[in-house]
Amino acid sequence: MNWPLIALRNILRDGTRVISTLLIIAIGLTALLVGSGFMLSTYDSLQEITMRTEGHLIVIDDTPDPLLGGSHQQLSLSNWQTIRESLWDDDRVLRVLPRARFEGVVSKGNRSAVFFGSGVDPKEEFRVHGPFLRTTGVLDPWLTSSQRAEVMLGAQLARTLDATSGDLLTLRTVRSNGESAETIVRLAGLYQNGTPAIDNHTLMVALSTSSALMGSDNVSQLSIYLDKKEESAALQRSLQETIDGVIVQSWQQRATLYHKVKSLYDRIFGVMAIIILTVVFLAITNIISLAIYQRRSEIATLSALGTRPPQIYANFILEALIISIAAAMLGMLLAYAISHAINLAEIMMPAPPGKTEGYPIFIYISWPHYLVTSLVLVVVVILASLLSACRAAKINIARAIS
Amino acid sequence: MTTRLSLNAISKAYGKADNQMVVLHDISFSLNAGEFLAIEGPSGSGKSTLLNICGLIDHATHGDYYLNGAAVSQLNSSERCACRRREIGFIFQRHQLIPAMTVYDNIAYPLQLNNVKAKQIKHDVAQLLTAMGLEHRCNHLPYQLSGGERQRVGIARALIKRPQLVVADEPSASLDHRHAQAGLQLMRELNQTYGASFLIASHDPLVINHCDRKLTLLDGYLVDPA
What we know:
The complex is a heterodimer. Chain A is an alpha+beta fold.
């Protein structure tokens, strides 16, 4: 007996019921796919920002002074050049960037502001940030002439100082031995990424400038950028084993914002997914229960002929399976079309907490993700139909037939 | 002669004690192997309820029921299901065909439930389709058949597995005289070849006259017990 064909005939007997079932499942799946696609793209983007900002791996000195906020804020990594040279031969490594953290006061005329500075490799630093750190002003001279005492300012910090490219600024700081130091730098350009903490308070100078200012060749950290992020765990282990006196951290250990947002979104979308799956579950239970009521005479006949209850359940589950597979395909197509349209439309999201700029919505389209989500929904539909079908076996045969 | 079915003081009541409606009162009779037994009576006399109890699709409130010598009144639902599957054929008043199954599938279904081999099923179904004059309808769905054809398919489905007991509720209800005769002839052949027993509720004199014996039910009482 061709049970799938029989199930298909049963499905086609009630077009209205089938269409409403299809639409409920398809719309539920579309909502899940578009919502989770947005969530995944947000995770991806936050990961990317963290990796570009901090590097895939971060090497710091292993003797942090808790009073100074941890070793990555101190100029305590002395053998960084040796470590960097040793990494150049590793094919997995694309870049190794030193970063020296320091802080103080920046002034222009009678205007002053507190800053958090970084001494960086000017030729490489802005390449790794990519689109996540936008620059304006005269950047090239700064990049090509790293020996000049020039500075890049966060855009809002420059506005606070009323500084424009070419202006001379004074950086004042206190060295680790307590001496105060200052230097004059020329403003080469501005950068911004929509994060007030960065745009309002940070600046960057060439490593040579920060070394001269701080009176130390040490850096705070070495940021290692890899060809493939999947290789970071293996390289982290091997570096930790081979280099003494340092701690090798992965980007995840620095990704505070990523972990917070992920935790928040996981909960929001988790609740949303539970609500959607519950709605689908209840709708399918209701629809299958109605179908069972309408077909109780047929079910009673099957029982009277000696059909085992599991076979009766199986018929309904097979019907639900066929409907849910068709609905899953429809839902995936709808989700694909909607996601594509949103991505092309470049709709802007409002600025999230802690940011001053919105960002374009991007919906992740991934067929493995589509298939797994569809599979979850198909399982929910089958469970709902199983629950309803169990009632079919309790039908009073004599009453249903008469 | 072997007793196929034996009822001993069977009663059936609906509702609770203070508001109970008794539809069968102390019904006792036996049906021998190979016997054709008609049950007649006016509408509401309890014929269908009695057939349902004999066909194990309903429970008696009191009394004992023996099928092939085994007490079946106390069987659980799974055992009753297995017993129906193996030993009882049903001819329903309103044919009760499965709408999504073709004529062939409807007739073959009881054999599939009993795990008969596909080749044997094909052979038996073809034979019965020819006997019932339905071979040209084999791939049709029930809605494509006339009322008489549906009833013939229902009869064929009941007889295909050669059950020991056939319970028939108005088997000729939607058949013309010629097809009613053919159906009865087929039942009689099965009865003579395999010793199947028939318990038939009917108003049709053709059917009643065809039976070896008849019982009359009136308001739930057996008027003429065997």
